[in-house]
Amino acid sequence: MADPVIEQIKAEICEEFEVPLTFFNKFIELEDEKVHYTRRHGLIEDLRKLVAQTARVERQVEPE
Amino acid sequence: MRLTQLELNNFRPYYGRVTLDFPDVRAGELFLVHGKNGFGKTSMFSAVQWALYGEGTRRELYDHANNRAKGEAEFEMSVSLAFTHDDREYRLTRTAKANRDAVEAPEHLTRSSLTLYRDGAPLPGGEHEVAQERIETIIPRDASQFFFFDGEKIGKYSSSEHTDDTRSAIELVLGLRAVQNARTDASNLKSQVRRTRNAAMKKNEEQANLISKQELLEQEIEGLQRAFVEAEKALDELDTKRQGYRSQLEELSEVQELARERQRLEQDAASVKEERDAVIETLKKESRGLYLRVLAPLVIQAHDQCAAEYEALRERETTRRLDEAVSTFLEKLASEEVCVCGQPLGEHERSTILSHARSQVVEVVAEMTSAETVTEVASRLELLRRARLTAERAAQRFEEFAVKKIDMDEKLSGLESRVASLTSQMNSVDADSVNSLRDLLERAESEYQLTQKERLALDVQIEHKKSEADSLDKQIRKLGGATGTAAALEAQIDLLEKTERAFDAFLLRAAKARRTQIEEQANHFFKQITNKATGYDSMFIADDFTFGINAADGTRPNMDQISEGEKQVVAFSFIMGLNRYTRSSAPLIIDTPMGRLDEEHRPNLASAIAALEQQVFLFVTETDLAFGVEPILREAVEKDFAIVHDQSTLSSTIKEVSR
Q1: ipTM score here?
Q2: Higher-confidence residue: B464 or B399?
């Protein structure tokens, strides 16, 4: 269950550092499930896909 | 996670299968398992840990196996745990088998294997590794030290030497480890993306120089990171090594404690033996009067006959005296020639009276016994009375000493069997092996400290090089030229840079927020347990994760100098505080919870444990229940199990008891 204190800190930090909250949470979630990667060795690849996708979305909405 | 059943099979002193059921009655259930030292409390504690995480070495596995079962043709050791987690039912079973008839050495046992069932069916892809991964997700191995612990050994968290352990525990239990890993991976990913970007960039000479400098830096960083990973690996290995030495030393200390107990028992046995020898001597002396015991019935019979004879003589004498009195009276009547009524007697009456008086005299003479005879019978009777008394006393004393000897034989046999039991629990331990282990531990410790310093230095170097690379990156980007793919990659680098900083800030603020919350909870427990309710104001967890106590007079006692009992109280309070915020929920399993606590701390701790709203298992000795602890726990205890130990087979089993 999400902890309101921690969730509040996450929200503040994401706003402060201009990082999308969903991306921040997904990044930690993937790390958290690292144990499931021990036999697949795909964590960095999944993270890279996540970063590429988020950056693409961010660039599209960014004003030129 | 909530335990519903524990089953041990041929594990340590538990020969065959032993099952303990834990009914789900209410939220804060408490279970007691009590037994004397060496009966198998810690073994049960180890069984839970082995079931969850397996063995470190084959030697450890071999030591877990029951000695009696090791000699049997078909050997299997297993521990099975049934538990509920997130509304699902699990059963895990860890098993090791013998690969030959008798298990005489560690290599005769197969490494343990694990099976995990969820809701009655094997876990999908449920082979050993997957099952182990799932267990680690439910309750991480490193976090388990805050759920399963020895009350006597938790004091270490209060010591200033263990701030790393404390920090690491908080990060791990609160799930901050994942954020740390995320920070590292974001940084590594940034370097990767940067390399791809550099390859895709349109390069002018200046930019090409900067890129090649940056590439060199990246290579250096990679080299340093490899060295860092190596150092981490070496640290893990050294940590395992020093933990191994520590636990071996602890085991040796336990064995030494057993040796001391054996010495005490041997002294007791010697004094009982001495006492028994004295009893045997007395019995020998008493046995000289044993003929009296044989003669007693005859003496009693003779005494009774003599008493009857004496009684008959006395009756006869009484009759004789009566007859004599009657004869005297009649003769007096005849000589006075007057009847008792006052009328003169006629010749006929006189002659009748005289005739009666004479026949009475004849009877008196006939009944007369000589005074010598009476005296002789009386003295014979007195003699027989004394003989009877002596015979009876001799028999009684002999019985008394014979019973005393039987008691002492039993006591001695109990002591000797306990000594034998202790002897079998002890390996051959001598001071040399203790000293050599201490040397090894010392070497491993210093090697660990050295590697830790190296790792820290590498970390600093990596960060320094990374910031250099970042600064070069800014210059590269300033020169422009990134189009298409390179521009897209730059956006990724931007995102990763911001994310890195966000992770750093999050780690700091989350740990601080959590530290405050843990401190609040820990302080709540501390106030419940401390025996210095007025002397101590509160406990605190500092920014650097050291613990401390705020005294009422405003001072802060040196934590390395407070008593071991107080350290235990502070550490217990910290663990309870940590437990409240942990992401993994698990039962608390505490071995010897009262450890070094005094008679005031004990009932306080018992009340705090009894009020916990989680499943708790306490492995206790009767001493742990003393000082008013038992009545407090009794109110909250759901089930009470006693470990019954058979000294002849050195095996233990479990019996449910009602208190």
Answers
A1: 0.92
A2: B464
